[in-house]
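Morning, I've got a small favour to ask if you have a moment. I owe you a coffee for this, so here goes:

…
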Amino acid sequence: MKYLKYILGILAILVIGFFLLGLVKSEVTYECEVIADKPLAESWAVSQDDKNMAKWLMGFQKTEHISGTPGTVGAVSDIYFISDGQEMTIRETITEIVPNESISMLFTSDFMDMDYNLTMTSVDGKTKIKSNTTCRGNGIISKSMVALMGSSMKTQEETNLSNLKKTIEDN
């Protein structure tokens, strides 16, 4: 009986710690950067072409336009992914766009919201591609999960940008 109390006490501390983590670290922010050996205009065009998305976004299936003019501020689309055998839908809203320079989007799902900004700048005939991301869980459990998944989300974004660089350079 004594051991059961200790085990339950440890479990209670772990559960409380998990929830406190979500309260203390309610959002995760990270940056990633690559340089593609292609001019800016070509890099931008490749990154904005829906036909190329499956080449650089892991699990990408399709985009379904919902409202607004595609590729402009206010455009809303549902993006479909397959992740671990499960279909996942994320709603994308373009919040700012400067052609050949930057695009900012808000991605929303039941689990979390993500503010995403992709910028491209010309550097000696090459293109520096940089992303800035801020993720927030939409509930107490998802806030804690996002806090724990921060490094894996950054690793995924590094992989995506590396794949984008390869897609641009293979164009």
